[in-house]
Amino acid sequence: MILAANPYRDSDIFQFFGVMLNRLWQLVQGNLSLTDLASDEIQMLVLVGLCFSSALIGAFLVLKKMTMMANALCHTILLGIVIAFILLKPFSLEGGLVSSFLSLKVLIIASLLSGLLTTVLTQILVQVAKVQEDASIGLVFTSLFALGVVLVTLYTKNLHIGTEAIMGNIDALDIDDLSLVGSVALLNLVVFFFFFRGFTTATFDPLFASSIGLPVSWLNYFIMVLTAGTCIAAFRAVGVLLVLTFFVGPPLMARVLTDKLKPLLLLSFVLPAICSIFSVALSRHILVVYQTPISTSGLVVCVFAVMYFLLLLFAPKKGVVNQFFQRKFQKVLPKVG
Amino acid sequence: MNYSLVDFFTDPVLRAPTLGSIFMCLSSSLAGVIVVIRKRSLLGESLSHASYPGIALGVTLLASFFSPSSDGFAIAVLFCAFISSLVGMLLIDLLQKRFSVKDDAALCFVLSSFFGLGVLIASRIQTTHALWYKQVQGFLYGQTATMQDIHIVIYAVLLLVTGSLIVLLYRDIQMLIFDKAFGQSIGINFRLVEIVILFLTVLAIVIGIRSVGIVMMAGMLIAPALAARQLTQSLKFTFLISGIIGALSGFLGNYFSVMIPYYLHAEKLSLPTGPMILLVASFICLLALLFAPQKGLITRMMRVVKFRRNCQLENILKALWKDLGRGVTLKEVSSMQNLSLSIALLRIRKLSSKGWLDCTNKRYCLSSSGEVKAREIVRLHRLWELYLVHLGAAKDKVHASAEEMEHVLTPDLEKQLTDLLNDPLKDPHDQPIPHKGGK
What we know:
The complex is a heterodimer. By secondary structure, chain A is an all-alpha fold. Helices cover 79% and strands 0% of the residues of chain A. Chain A is built from 14 helices and no strands. By secondary structure, chain B is mainly alpha-helical. Chain B has two domains: 7-295, ABC transporter involved in vitamin B12 uptake, BtuC (Orthogonal Bundle); 299-366, Winged helix-like DNA-binding domain superfamily/Winged helix DNA-binding domain (Arc Repressor Mutant, subunit A, Orthogonal Bundle), CATH 1.10.10.10. Chains A and B meet through helix 3, helix 6, helix 7, helix 11 and helix 13 of A and helix 3, helix 6, helix 7, helix 12 and helix 14 of B.
């Protein structure tokens, strides 16, 4: 029914933005209520919300060199969800698996479980069993992921949910997903608003931070749990593997343009948000013009990558092209002088 | 159907998946040794994901131009995966070296972007060629059930390539890992060796993904190699054991993924092989981490416990020897040695069973063999004290060290100390040093 009424149904990429602006204007005038969001709009809002949550966390993950832990977490989230679902099964009355996957209790427990499980197990392997760090991260998350896949398969008797978990299914998003993404974004915003000082100090100068009594290792656990929460929010939209791009890509893009933390945070929200909106439009364009349905989540990730490489080439200061010309210039200048 | 173990190697439907899995896991566990020892395990994770767009593209191209029954399918797809994995490697290198991106971020970025690209390409054929799309998805979690006899040959050849590369380059790899400077001085071209090793790693990953799946490939590189490293120090045996563990988990994983649905009476359920193989491998790795004879966690803890118990036993003997045959009660032992009553009782039982204690009227004293043993301990204690003083330590500070060393000194060391100190008779506190055996 929503599809039939989708105002973007026949629009190519230019009409898409026209329709979008038109609907925005109607919304401002009050002719449109928030409940009749079209599926494309939900997709855009979910992706933008995701960009917001992950921009905050991603910057710290990249600066603290914890992206591989984030990658590990993205994998173990699957096991977290399955375990939380099995634990809560006796207490929940509604039967459908997919609807239970969404229930907030399951999700909160899942993110806590997988965040803690991954970090604690890796720490145990490194500190107690004296395994090298890279191997212990790799071993823990792949094994936990394997366990997750087996449990999902045994439990639901099909592999489809497992595949959907890692690929995402952005076309199946509805208004509930939007509110989930929104609340995670809000949570991240609140946490970072209050602990911003602590996180920055612990990131740039961990020794100083622990000397003034900041619980540095607890802040790390905290980041991991927030990361897990964001993974959960992303899990239905882009799947647990692609969300890694949302963590790593934006800070890298922003890093090409600026060296300061606050502009970096802002840019690593704005740039990917533009990319996301553009990708949804592009995906619709390809569907309408070439009659080819393609995966929007895959497209978003590719647009991120293209954006990053464009920035690497053409960024004002650090871009390859600019540096090339500067070098030429420097060679010429002495002759002139 | 209920299959016996032998059926897995003879049954025309089962033998291709079984042998195929064994070959694939064998090659990945061999390459894994190099990756793990060089601390590059997470590179394996990135490279395996980077092969996904290659697979998707390969299948899409084949689906557009050829009929689905084409025999070259497997090889063509593997080739595309290989190329795309290499491109991923080059990109990681470019990001790190040219744009000074930190290595973990570069790895993760390439991993997820390539995977995204793969998802994008695969989605192109999702509706148009549903069967082919399923093939692509099969590579995510590993799918061996659809393999045929031709695959046995393909993977056997590929395994042969990896295996012979390792054997041929064994000395160079050894040099690269353990003593690069020396290798350079005798003129080994390490750039070439590095390139070959990279080639080998990518090849092993591409071989393995059919059985273990892209997402879990990294684990298959790590788990067997890590287990082997727990069990042996020598590089040669690490390769050997890792290979055995890899092959074993390839077989068992395959076995379980067929048999578990049977046991659960859910014959239609198809358990993906990848997770099963990896779970078997990491279970073996866990066992090795816990119980390896030298480095195992439990073994190490057992050694500590045993040593502590031994110390307590020897302390009790010493205390009884100083008590000069009056005998002590259980309560006195427990309060003297600061042990709980039950522990004290256990220790005394142990001593009695060795024949070192006599018991009369609930009072314990040393037997003649116990006395010999106790004298040895006291002798070690006093010898060590004398030795420390000989080295220049103050007389009143040597007791604490000797309290610990008396449990550690071996007969060999004792003889050396005796010779060094000219078979002394008195310790620094003018106490007699008892003779070994005699009075």
